[in-house]
Amino acid sequence: MSSGTPPDWAALYAKHRDKMWASALGILREGGRQSEAEDVVHDALRSLMESPPTGVQSWEALMIATVKRRAVDVLRSARVRRDGGEISDAAATQLGSEEFLADDVAEAVDHERVGGLIWDALGGLDARDRQIVWERIVHQRSLRELAEEFGLSEGRISQITKAGLTSLRDALEKQGVEGW
């Protein structure tokens, strides 16, 4: 895309919305503000649209970084401090570091590349179990969160995850991927 042509925002959003949302959710969970993830994603996208950057090498990395900065802003806001949900100093330091941002960009690229392979490998599971394994492993959600969301016990979520990982390992080994 040339620097003078505006990006196709709808296509970029459709392609990266899940990763943007997961990034926002991961940060907002620190302060108990998960319900604001969608607003953070939309605010980040709006800010990019209002001042479109030029010469972007990775839209995915830029969009995720923008979402993460917005999420940190929410946690640092006066309203959140007043409500008692302030982000810890250690988390704020980590979230603001360039090294952390570089790790996130690398992780996002890895997730995109490996994500399709993992999703396909989990194809033998029913839709609910596949979603549980995906949320638990890729999005690193807790047993408690998933148990509440799916109406199951934490033990059952753990069993589903273990069975899914066994299925995943077997499928990846069949494709020649080792080390699982």
Automatic annotation (TrEMBL):
<keyword id="KW-0731">Sigma factor</keyword>
<feature type="domain" description="RNA polymerase sigma-70 region 4">
    <location>
        <begin position="121"/>
        <end position="169"/>
    </location>
</feature>
<dbReference type="InterPro" id="IPR014284">
    <property type="entry name" value="RNA_pol_sigma-70_dom"/>
</dbReference>
<protein>
    <recommendedName>
        <fullName>RNA polymerase sigma-70 region 4 domain-containing protein</fullName>
    </recommendedName>
</protein>
<comment type="similarity">
    <text>Belongs to the sigma-70 factor family. ECF subfamily.</text>
</comment>
<keyword id="KW-0805">Transcription regulation</keyword>
<keyword id="KW-0238">DNA-binding</keyword>
<dbReference type="InterPro" id="IPR013324">
    <property type="entry name" value="RNA_pol_sigma_r3/r4-like"/>
</dbReference>
<dbReference type="Pfam" id="PF04545">
    <property type="entry name" value="Sigma70_r4"/>
</dbReference>
<keyword id="KW-0804">Transcription</keyword>
<dbReference type="InterPro" id="IPR013325">
    <property type="entry name" value="RNA_pol_sigma_r2"/>
</dbReference>
<dbReference type="InterPro" id="IPR036388">
    <property type="entry name" value="WH-like_DNA-bd_sf"/>
</dbReference>
<dbReference type="InterPro" id="IPR039425">
    <property type="entry name" value="RNA_pol_sigma-70-like"/>
</dbReference>
<dbReference type="InterPro" id="IPR007630">
    <property type="entry name" value="RNA_pol_sigma70_r4"/>
</dbReference>
